[in-house]
What does this fold into?
Amino acid sequence: MPPARIVGAICASVPDADVGAFGLGIPYEHPLGHRGFTHSLLFAFAFSAFATFAYRRLARKTPSARVVFAFLLICLASHGLLDAMTDGGKGIGFFIPFDNRRYFLPFRPIHVSPIGFELAGDVLWSEVKWVWLPAALITLAGKFLGPRLRRYESTRRDAQGSPNHQSE
Ligand SMILES: [Zn+2]
It folds into this structure.
C-alpha cells in the first residue's frame, strides 16, 4: 500500500477522470461532463469516504478514520477549488446534482491547462506560482512546526503529570 500522501495525490487527480466523458460524447455542460459531478462536493465526500474505508482495510498501520477522511477530503475538494481559480473552461459543478450550474471563484489567477499533454510555459509558470509554491511552503511549515508542536505537547503533558503516576 502506498503511503497516505501518495493516496492523497491520487485522490486529488481522480476528478479529472471525467475527461473520458468527451470520448463518450457527453458535452462539457452536462452534469456528467468535464468539471461536472466528479468535481462536486458530494463526489468529494463520497469518494473520500470510500477511499478512507479502502485505505484502512489495505494499509497495515493507519491514523484514525477521521484523520484519513479529513485528509482525503481536503485533497479531493482542493481539486475543484483550484479548477475554480483557473481562467478558462466553463466552471465547476460544485453542487451537482442539487444545482447543475457551474461556478468560478472571484479570484482566478491560474491559467487553464490545455486538455492533453502540450503544456505551455506560462501555464506551467502560473501553476508553479499559485499551486506548487504555496503547497511547498505549507509542507515545509508542517515539517518545521510538526516536531516542535509534538515536543511542546509532550513537555506540557510531562509537566502536568500523567494520570497513571498520580495514583502512586
Ligand atoms: Zn479538474
User: Anything to note?
Assistant: The mean pLDDT is 87. The CA atoms of residues 39 and 84 lie 10 Å apart. The chain has two domains: 1-108, 118-161. The chain has six helices and no strands.
